[in-house]
Design brief:
two-stranded antiparallel ribbon, 46% helix, 212 residues, 8 helices, Gyrase A, domain 2
């Protein structure tokens, strides 16, 4: 759902009057463009034709800067339009997109952080990487037994919980696989919500990641 008062978030510091308090780095939007250009029949032109909100169209048409911050809400409408074109569930495409972003960024901006020999170290460092894409939320993690890591994402906006889950299920197996982990499995639970002082409803998402 897109806010009726959607305002564009331009590259640079997030202004106090931005549409929402939830933003992602331009890397995410750049990755979505690259993915949908190849994945969808008709590419980006067909995707743009599916967008109905003129503010979302203007947002999608702007140039994105990898390290700058952008409102997350328009991405939900863009992903849903892509799912209609592909004839697939929204979350399936998000997971596919996250795999592609992982393959790109593990070889690029996060190469030094995730290019380690131990799956255990990668599991812990993924919490750092996940937060680096976002300007909201918190995380914590612990090993519950050997080769089983429990990661908890805190203060996740409820409207984005399905997107967040699908993103983790795409990104994490790729990252863990680069460190030699095999048969990576993720069990996810979205837990009770509460309202922040800003009025936004947030949830906790618990991922139990296991491998051999």
């Amino acid at each position: 759902m897109i806010s009726a008062s959607l305002r564009l978030v331009r590259p640079g510091t997030i202004p106090p009057s931005a549409t929402s308090e939830f933003h992602v780095k331009g890397l995410v939007y750049i990755g979505a463009r690259e993915f949908y250009a190849k994945r969808l029949a008709g590419g980006l032109e067909a995707l743009r034709a599916q967008l109905v909100n003129p503010d979302v169209i203007a947002f999608w048409d702007q140039p994105f800067v990898a390290s700058s911050w952008y409102d997350l809400y328009p991405l939900m409408a863009i992903n849903q339009a892509a799912s209609r074109l592909a004839g697939l569930p929204y979350t399936d495409l998000v997971t596919e997109n996250a795999r592609c972003i992982a393959q790109r960024d593990i070889r690029g901006v996060y190469k030094l952080l995730l290019n380690v020999a131990s799956p255990e170290l990668v599991a812990r460092r993924l919490l750092v990487v996940a937060l680096d894409y976002l300007d909201f939320g918190q995380s914590k993690g612990e090993f519950v037994r050997p080769k089983v890591f429990r990661a908890t994402q805190l203060r996740v906006p409820a409207p984005f919980s399905a997107w967040m889950k699908a993103t983790v299920h795409g990104f994490v197996p790729v990252a863990m696989g680069t460190a030699g982990a095999q048969d990576v499995q993720i069990e996810t639970q979205i837990q009770g919500s509460h309202v922040q002082t800003s009025g936004s409803r947030v949830v906790e998402i618990v991922h139990e990641i296991s491998w051999r």
